[in-house]
Predict the structure.
Amino acid sequence: MDYKRAKKFIIDNLSRDIRFHEEGKFDEIGKGYAEYDNEFPRTDHQLMIAWNFWDAWIDERNHGFPCFYSGITKETWPQLAKHIIEKLSKGEKITDPLILSNFVFERKPSLIERIKKFFKKRTT
């Protein structure tokens, strides 16, 4: 999945899930996530924040909204999704502090990068 398609996919799905959440159709939130998890690109930081957010929203829903994420309640999820949609749509950085504190994860080096680093150390 390329960047443009991934951006449209996440915006469309978050928009749909806002509607489901507001209508109380919680079981509908997250449709399509599992089918596209392997395809979704992990190269764009903003898209990854959105993807991590969506994954967490689904997980939170699966557990009955126990407030696993600091500062985020059952009612907060749609508002935060709207912020993500707005920022992605405009090509701007996601700035909401709740989103940034809960869904920005440091990217670990890939296995290939770690192996290269390991062998580089051993040969020097």
About this structure: The first helix runs from residue 3 to 22. The chain has a mean pLDDT of 91. The radius of gyration is 17 Å.
